[in-house]
Specification:
177 residues, 4-stranded antiparallel β-sheet, alpha+beta, Cyclic Phosphodiesterase, Chain: A
Length: 177
C-alpha cells in the first residue's frame, strides 16, 4: 500500500481558535473553509508533501513515536500577514519555536518528503484573495482572533485535486502532567 494524492503532516487547532479562523475562511475563502484549520509541519513549506511510494503504516508508526515525545503547548497568533508578492493571508504563531522543532524532527525522522521551494514558515492559512485583493484591507482590519488553544495532536491528511480532504492518521501529544 502507498499514499495517494498530496499528503500533509499538520498540527490541528482546537476551539475557540479553530472556530474563529473557520469563520474568517467561510467569509473570505470558501475553498479553504473546506479543509481543517491547522498549521502545517510538512507539506506547504520547508518539507514538501510526503513521497507517495512509502508504507503508510511505517510513517504512522514514526509519527506515533514522535508525538509521544512532544508535550502539548499553547498557541496564540500574531497579526495577520501575507506571503510576499501574494494575496495568501495567514496568521503567524506568537511562538513559532514548537512548530520549528517538530518540523526539524520530521527532517531527521526517516519519512521521505518531496522537495519544497519555500523555507519553513509556520502559518495558519486564512484566505487566498488573489481574485479579490480589495478584500485584503477588510480582512486585515478584523485583526487577530484574540483567542488561544492547546495544540494536542499531530495529523496526516490527504488533499485531493478537488480540495476535498481526508484524515489518514492522528496521534495525541504527550500530556503536560
Amino acid at each position: 500500500m502507498k499514499f495517494e494524492h498530496n499528503v500533509y503532516i499538520v498540527m490541528d487547532l482546537s476551539d475557540p481558535l479553530a472556530g474563529a479562523v473557520m469563520r474568517l475562511r467561510e467569509r473570505f475563502d470558501a475553498r479553504l473553509a473546506g479543509i481543517p484549520v491547522e498549521i502545517g509541519v510538512a507539506g506547504s513549506s520547508g518539507l514538501g508533501t510526503l513521497e507517495n511510494d512509502q508504507d503508510p503504516d511505517h510513517v504512522f508508526g514514526i509519527l506515533n513515536d514522535l508525538a509521544r515525545g512532544i508535550r502539548r503547548f499553547e498557541l496564540s497568533f500574531q497579526s495577520l500577514t501575507s506571503f510576499p508578492g501574494t494575496q495568501w493571508h495567514y496568521f503567524e504563531p506568537m511562538d513559532p519555536a514548537p512548530f520549528v522543532r517538530i518540523h526539524d524532527s520530521l527532517k531527521k525522522s526517516g519519512i521521505v518528503f518531496k522537495p519544497s521551494p519555500y523555507p519553513y514558515t509556520p502559518h495558519c492559512s486564512v484566505a487566498d484573495l488573489k481574485d479579490r485583493p480589495e478584500d485584503a484591507s477588510v480582512l486585515k482590519g478584523l485583526g487577530d482572533p484574540g483567542a488561544s488553544c492547546v495544540m494536542d495532536k499531530i495529523s496526516v491528511y490527504s488533499l485531493r485535486p478537488d480540495w476535498s480532504c481526508g484524515l489518514l492518521f492522528q496521534a495525541l501529544l504527550r500530556p503536560n502532567s
